[in-house]
Amino acid sequence: MKYWLVKSEPEKYAWSDLERDGQTTWDGVRNFQARNNLRQMQVGDLVMYYHSVSEKSIVGVAKVAKEAYQDPTTPEAQWVAVTLAPEKALAKRVTLEQIKKDERLHNIGLLRQSRLSVMPLSPEEFDMLLALGN
Fold first, then answer.
1. Matching Pfam families, A to Z (predicted)?
2. Which domain holds residue 46?
3. Is 49 within 8 Å of 3 (Cβ atoms)?
């Protein structure tokens, strides 16, 4: 199993939207590195759901429900999407400030590549974030 973090502006598609919908197509990614990360996702992988821009916090854990397929928002074959389903909301949000202050997370992709919308997490990073949110 692999672990990931995806970012979404809550005004565009919030965690509550994912919970309401039961699953969503994670599409519209137009960054090559993020696309490559989508291509590596496998069914059952766990995904931290990060509200970017206005909230800057991790709010829930999703699961990959369907592996990479042609992004339906473009005819260009190079772009892919995955299907995500909600797993569980975190009991408390894990803020970007908390992450920055935690020395155990100093190498996390969220701090090193802050603009990347889909990034891998190590099992240890995932477990630390989960602990901070529960």
1. EVE (PF01878)
2. 3-133
3. no
Q: What is the pLDDT along the chain (134 residues), one digit of tens a residue?
A: 999 999 999 999 999 999 999 999 999 999 999 999 999 999 999 999 999 999 999 999 999 999 999 999 999 999 999 999 999 999 999 999 999 999 999 999 999 999 999 999 999 999 999 999 99
Alpha carbon distance 46, 86 (integer Å): 10
Dihedral sign for Cα atoms in the order 61, 55, 22, 26 = negative
Rounded distance between C-alpha atoms, residue 55 and residue 108, angstroms: 18
CA geometry: angle 54, 85, 126, nearest 5 deg: 65
How many domains does one find in the chain? 1
**CATH number of the domain within which 78 lies:** 3.10.590.10
